[in-house]
Amino acid sequence: MEDIQRHEHFMRQAIVEATKAMDKDDVPVGAVIVYENRIIARAHNQREMLNDPTAHAEMIAITQAAEYLQNWRLTGTTMYVTLEPCAMCAGALVQSRIDTLVYGTVDKKAGACISVMNIIQEPKFNHRLEVIPNILAEECKFVLQKFFLENCRTK
Fold first, then answer.
1. Most CB atoms within 10 A, among 7, 32, 37, 117?
2. Which CB contacts under 8 angstroms, 24+ apart, belong to 124-128?
3. Would residue 58 show up in a list of annotated catalytic residues for this protein?
4. Mean pLDDT, to the nearest integer, of 111-131?
5. How far apart, in whole angstroms, are the C-alpha atoms of residue 98 and residue 79?
6. Three-class SS of residue 99?
């Protein structure tokens, strides 16, 4: 499978996770972590359900992947996430030593991987990630827009 097809395949799995968050009235962000070409973690935002401000899809997926690999160092892994990670999640990506971040749509208000700041490639840190943005960006953006449009109408 070529790189772009592989990235789109795994991003579609992250979109499935994002729709699970939307079904639970949470901001629809989904993430999967891939190791040796298979998914070892999948998660979606659960802030509303858990009443936990740290229950972002990325954070939950990192915890699952570390448990799967029995190691906090997630070298050799790639995270696919539907929305550019925030500062908290970008910091966790650096700390967990994930190799590559692939994300769908940019977050112009809170994105910490390119848009507002770039934590994951900060030269002063001891680990930097490869970043591949805009994979299935329109599909990822659509899910978010749908959620916010529906929530604006009901409130």
1. 32
2. 125/94, 127/94, 127/95, 127/97, 128/94
3. yes
4. 95
5. 7
6. coil
CB distance 120 to 93 below 8 Å? yes
| Rounded Cα gap, residues 6 and 18, in angstroms | 19
Average pLDDT over residues 42-51: 96
Nearest partner of 18 among 50, 58, 51, judged by Cα: 58
User: For position 154, what pLDDT does the model report?
Assistant: 54
Distance CA 128, CA 116 (A): 17
Mean pLDDT of the chain: 95
Q: Is residue 2 pLDDT above 90, yes or no?
A: no
Render pLDDT for 127-138 as a digit per residue (tens, 0 to 9): 999 999 999 999
**How confident is the model at residue 1, as a pLDDT?**
57
Residues in the chain, overall count? 155
Q: Which two tokens stand for residue 41?
A: 């973690």
Q: Which two tokens stand for residue 34?
A: 């891939």
Q: How many CA atoms lie within 13 A of 113 on its CB side?
A: 28
Which of the following is catalytic: 2, 17, 36, 58?
Answer: 58
Q: How sure is the predictor about 151, in pLDDT bands with cuts at 50, 70 and 90?
A: confident
